[in-house]
Amino acid sequence: MKTSFVLPADIEPLSRDPKATSPGRRINLHHSMCFGCGADAPVGLRIDVIAGEGLTVSASMKVEDWMQGGPGVIHGGLLSTAFDEVMGTSPLLLRMPVVTGHLEIDYAKPIPLGSTVQFTGEILGGVRRKVYTRAVAHLGDPQEPVAAAHGLFIAIDLEKHFAGYRDRAVHPSGHQNGA
Ligand SMILES: CCCCCCCCCCCC(=O)SCCNC(=O)CCNC(=O)[C@H](O)C(C)(C)COP(=O)(O)OP(=O)(O)OC[C@H]1O[C@@H](n2cnc3c(N)ncnc32)[C@H](O)[C@@H]1OP(=O)(O)O
Questions:
Q1: How far apart are CA 43 and CA 33, in angstroms?
Q2: Pocket test residue of 99, 102, 168 for ligand 1, highest count of atoms within 8 A of CB
Q3: What pTM, to 2 d.p., does this model score?
Q4: ipTM exceeding the 0.90 mark
Q5: Which residue, among 135, 170, 112, has the nearest Cα to 57 in the 3D structure?
Q6: Any stretches that span the bilayer, and where are they (predicted)?
Q7: pLDDT for 120
Q8: What are the φ/ψ torsions at residue 103 (nearest 5 degrees)?
Q9: What radius of gyration, in Å, describes the C-alpha atoms of the chain?
Q10: Pocket around ligand 1: residues whose beta carbon is below 6 Å from it?
């Protein structure tokens, strides 16, 4: 699949943290109201990202009618969100919280409503706080990808990064911290 993404020359290998989620289990360190993975979000993708061997992850997503963009197919931005979720969760295998710095998507084929998209993702390496990832999507045949993505995620100090926003956080009750 064609892509214009270029990895940096100084990229270094990264290692899975010994305490990372075991292969086959859901990576479960985010919050339940997240648009990408939260079970309590009123609208969302509800993607379960599953730890794989090494620095790999997998996920699947049924393409529901409300995800429609062009007639009969998924909205490209929504697919981008799914890739963000899959790749953004993978650095938790390093036990490293991150935010998205840069995201690139290569769309190869239209993805019909009603299909189930299978994602595989992997961490390619890192440079200082930067974690480089890639993911591929297919509809059942890994040899026939329908889209692929590269993501650059930046490690953060969770408490500091969200310090100014926590009073806006929405909880399953529908209430905000400051409400
Ligand atoms: C959350 C819970 C976990 C659980 C995660 C669960 C999965 C969540 C999946 C969804 C994730 C999201 O959508 S997160 C939401 C969307 N993203 C955001 O809101 C991020 C907004 N941006 C920021 O807050 C900031 O720009 C940061 C934190 C990314 C970087 O700011 P900083 O901390 O001041 O660091 P800074 O020095 O600028 O950058 C560090 C290094 O990254 C490089 N860098 C920074 N941005 C870019 C960029 N766009 N393209 C290339 N390189 C970049 C810099 O050159 C530098 O490289 P060098 O000098 O070292 O070479």
A1: 9
A2: 99
A3: 0.96
A4: yes
A5: 135
A6: none
A7: 98
A8: -135, 130
A9: 16
A10: 30, 36, 84-85, 88-89, 97, 99-102, 128-130, 152, 154, 156
Cβ–Cβ < 8 Å for 29, 95: no
pLDDT in tens, 85-128: 999 999 999 999 999 999 999 999 999 999 999 999 999 999 99
Looking at residue 86, the DSSP 8-state letter turns out to be H
Profile the chain (179 residues) by mean pLDDT over runs of 10 residues: 93 97 91 93 96 98 98 98 98 96 98 98 98 98 97 97 94 70
Residue 91 Cα: closest atom of ligand 1? 5
Ligand 1 center from residue 42 Cα (angstroms):
27
* Residue in 45, 102, 154 to alter for ligand 1 test, most ligand atoms within 8 A of Cβ: 154
Neighbouring-strand partners of residue 58: 50, 120
